[in-house]
Write a structure and sequence with these properties.
Layout (H helix, E strand, L loop, with lengths): L2 H9 L3 E4 L2 H8 L7 E5 L3 E5 L4 H8 L4 E5 L4 H11 L4 E4 L6 H10 L4 E4 L1 H7 L5 H21 L9 H14 L4 E2 L4 E4 L19 E7 L1 E3 L2 E2 L2 E7 L5 H20 L6 H14 L12 E3 L6 E5 L12 E4 L2 E4 L3 E4 L2 E5 L4 E3 L9 E2 L3
Parallel strand pairs: 1-5, 3-4, 5-6, 12-20
Antiparallel strand pairs: 1-2, 2-3, 7-10, 8-9, 9-12, 10-11, 13-14, 15-18, 16-17, 18-19
């Protein structure tokens, strides 16, 4: 039984309407920007306009979808097919569909009950198969290459934007489709900003540089953070902060395996910070999140992460400490959950790297 049919049976629905980009890509294989799909109990239809006839047919056929070309009459064709297949209960992407879209379809699809199905769609995407895992491994490898090459070119006076551009450029050169999110490069006092997207600030001697970046490889994401020190005059407080984050991440690693509850890993790291100077107040975000087609997916290692981790799920472990107005440190890696532990996908050096100014 395919994943779509399992959702139909679980929710007792007659069909499922796919409109979200990532859910469409996951279930149908379509990578274009325009299209919808309807999964019935005994067949699956994909709809798009003349621009995607060849692409959509080629990409969705292996997943047993029949292609239908539509134009401005698309909504009428959807409704016609729903009626022909006697659909009374229709599952929809409630976690991504806008209110305006929902109201439009609700008005057009007369006599059909809309059943939220977004959560089940996301649940289906949590556990990755071997093909997905290979793409995730490659995405992580590409980001590792980008980090290794970028730290070679960092020099005094260059901007955070220049560093970000180089990270993204090297990823593209090595096969990435795109970046997986807006690249973060935050140096000096800006390193205390957890989401300090690259700015025009120039790199100065003797300051931290936080680089949080990732790529998409054949649609699948990586997400890595490294904090380096530019200079050779690091203070004891700065070194201690880095060591504390490093040790916290190592603790998180040691706990990750199938059956562990996400919030327990998150709490253990917070306890460690508090046992070493009451520092958890400087750690404001969650410890980790899953990823795949999207860079943030379920499940989570956070205060709200109540579910047990399962083999072949992905998880980031990314503790950070941020001293407002001074500096901050974050280290993040990508892990594949296994029955006995984890496989570390990102391989970049975790120990503090000191970059000597030229």
């Amino acid at each position: 039984m395919d994943k779509e049919r399992k959702i139909l049976d679980k929710l007792n629905i007659d069909a499922m309407f796919l409109t979200d980009y990532f859910n469409k890509r996951y279930f149908t294989g379509f990578t274009g920007t325009t299209g919808q799909a309807i999964v019935f109990k005994d067949k699956k239809n994909f709809y798009s306009d003349f621009r995607y006839v060849e692409q959509a047919t080629l990409q969705t056929k292996p997943n047993n979808y029949d292609f239908y070309q539509i134009g401005k009459d698309g909504q009428e064709i959807f409704y016609k097919h729903l009626v022909e297949n006697k659909v009374k209960r229709l599952g929809y992407d409630d976690m991504s569909m806008t209110v305006a879209e929902f109201e439009m379809y609700k008005k057009l699809f007369v006599g059909i009950e809309f059943v939220p199905a977004g959560k089940e769609m996301l649940e289906a995407r949590k556990i990755k198969d071997e093909k997905e895992i290979e793409k995730l491994r490659m995405a992580a490898k590409i980001s590792d290459i980008a980090f290794r090459e970028t730290i070679k070119i960092i020099k005094e006076g260059m901007t955070e934007k220049e560093i970000a551009a180089h990270l993204e450029y090297v990823q593209r050169l090595n096969g990435a489709d795109d970046k997986s999110f807006e690249t973060i490069v935050a140096s000096g006092h800006r390193s205390s900003m957890p989401h300090g997207v690259a700015s025009d600030k120039k790199i100065k001697k003797n300051e931290f540089i936080v680089m949080d970046f990732g790529c998409l490889y054949q649609g699948y994401a990586s997400d890595i953070t490294r904090t380096v020190f530019f200079g050779d005059n690091i203070s004891e407080d700065e070194k201690n902060l880095y060591d504390m984050v490093y040790n916290a991440q190592s603790l998180g690693f040691s706990m990750v395996k199938e059956g562990v509850v996400g919030k327990d890993v998150d709490q253990a790291v917070r306890d460690y910070f508090d046992e070493n100077g009451n520092m958890s107040k400087y750690f404001g975000h969650s410890l980790g999140h899953s990823f795949g087609l999207e860079v943030h997916e379920m499940p989570y290692c956070s205060k709200l992460g109540n579910e047990k981790l399962v083999a072949n799920e992905l998880m980031t472990i990314e503790p950070g400490l941020y001293i407002e107005g001074k500096y901050g440190v974050r280290i993040e890696d990508d892990l594949l959950i296994t029955k006995d532990g984890y496989e570390l996908l990102t391989q970049s050096k975790r120990e503090l790297i000191m970059i000597k100014p030229n």
